[in-house]
Write a structure and sequence with these properties.
Elements (H helix, E strand, L loop, with lengths): L23 E5 L9 E10 L6 E5 L6 E4 L5 E3 L6 E5 L2 E9 L5 H4 L10 E2 L1 H5 L3 H13 L3 H12 L10 H14 L6 H8 L3 H12 L3 H18 L6 H7 L5 H12 L3 H7 L3
Antiparallel strand pairs: 1-2, 2-7, 3-6, 4-5, 4-7, 5-8
Helix pairs in contact: 3-4, 8-11, 9-10
């Protein structure tokens, strides 16, 4: 199985230099029948010496994630805060990152109801949690990434919606608009670009995304900032705060530290080789 080529470096991974040093991170395309729903599968594998403990922080995304992790497998609603995972010894985890808006048909209810929550995999896809976890992670133990993805895909097909929700495409276009236009820093600006109302946009996001459009815009801008700082771009922090739509640098610094775990200047220095 050929890993996907990353288009956006390792956005979302705090201190991306750790990739390849402390752990292996791969992304794989979903099979054709699941591709309209799953953005990609991701796999993390590590094999660390006994004295090494690595804590990896990951930034949130407006996506539902189904994660197969020994003894901790779950469906995760949109998590609005960062997530830390401690790597020790040897192990592997497989996750499926569902496209924003695409999980509504599997959940059969408003996605906002599981924001910042986690459910057993069986609560959405049926089956036996222990057996399903073993079917995926036993393949990991054998070093077979293709088999891991195939096992997870079989689980997801149990609840495959009968038809594709047209709102998935609407959400995809909205997310791309946010990504491609950093000058959009307010929900009203986004609504105007989409020729809709702020209220309609908020209702759509509550039902099928699970995060507010305001949160998605701010998260994207902070992710862009973290990516630039991690990769050594020469940025004036006051100018960056202004470009992101912040009233002043202090508010930007506070939000950045809450998300990433360090103030912008400290984070930039920590990512230097």
């Amino acid at each position: 199985m050929t890993p996907l080529t990353l288009q956006d470096r390792y956005k979302g991974v705090v201190n991306p230099a750790a990739v390849g040093q402390r752990f292996r991170l791969e992304r794989y395309a979903a099979p054709p029948d699941l591709a309209p729903y799953i953005e990609w599968y991701w796999m993390v594998a590590w094999d660390l010496p006994p004295e090494v403990v690595h804590v990896q922080r990951t930034l949130p995304s407006p996506c539902i994630q189904v994660v197969f992790d020994r003894g901790r497998s779950a469906t995760f609603g949109v998590m609005t805060g960062s997530f830390e995972y401690t790597l020790t010894g040897k192990g592997a985890v497989l996750g499926a990152r569902f496209r924003p808006g695409a999980f509504r048909g599997f959940l059969k209810g408003a996605v906002q109801t599981i924001t910042n929550q986690q459910l057993p995999v069986s609560a959405v896809f049926g089956g036996d949690d222990e057996e399903d976890e073993c079917s995926v992670l036993d393949a990991a133990d054998a070093g077979d990434d293709t088999a891991m993805v195939a096992a997870a895909s079989a689980i997801f097909r149990r609840a495959l919606p009968a038809q594709l929700d047209p709102r998935i495409e609407r959400v995809a276009k909205t997310m791309e608009l946010i990504r491609q236009h950093p000058e959009i820093t307010q929900v009203a600006q986004l609504a105007e670009r989409l020729d809709t109302s702020v209220r309609a946009l908020q209702a759509l996001f509550r039902d099928v995304v699970g995060a507010t459009p305001k949160w998605v815009i701010r998260r994207n801008r902070l992710l862009d900032a973290a990516d630039q700082l991690a990769n050594g771009d020469d940025i004036d922090l006051a100018t960056l705060a202004q470009d992101l739509g912040y009233y002043d640098q202090a508010h930007f610094t506070s939000d950045f530290e809450e998300l990433v775990g360090k103030p912008p200047a400290h984070y930039r220095n920590s990512c230097k080789p």
